[in-house]
Amino acid sequence: MIGRFVERVALSPGLTVLILDDDKAIHATWNRLLSAHASLALSVHHFTEAALLSAWLREKRPSPFLGLIDYELLRQSVSGLDLIEQEGIASSSILVTSRFEEPAVLARCARLGLRMIPKDLVGLVPLATGFMPMA
Fold first, then answer.
1. Whole-prediction pTM
2. What is the C-alpha radius of gyration for the chain, rounded to an integer number of angstroms?
3. CA distance 18 to 44
4. Helix (H, G, I), strand (E, B) or coil at 100
């Protein structure tokens, strides 16, 4: 298998969710989806800049957490995929990208064991309680 697409996003009580995207509409979509699971008392943090998320992770890296990370970050020196690799958070993250068919992106995701969601499908991927195996 070249890339692993997420069939559902697994949530658990008290989970910290880190969202990195430069598109406010994507943040609003994640807020809408996650608000349906208010009973889980999720801790949701929004970032629009990779550097701010990196700094936050250095200071407060929670365990466990779920990173919902955009690939393409306009006017930034790194991609979301670069950040995932640099921070070593592939097992706790999902790459959200419009570039899910690009061979280079697929190859890097496969090498890292990183799961993906095509950006156009963000609002359609079901959120469910309970962790899914990463393997």
1. 0.90
2. 14
3. 6
4. coil
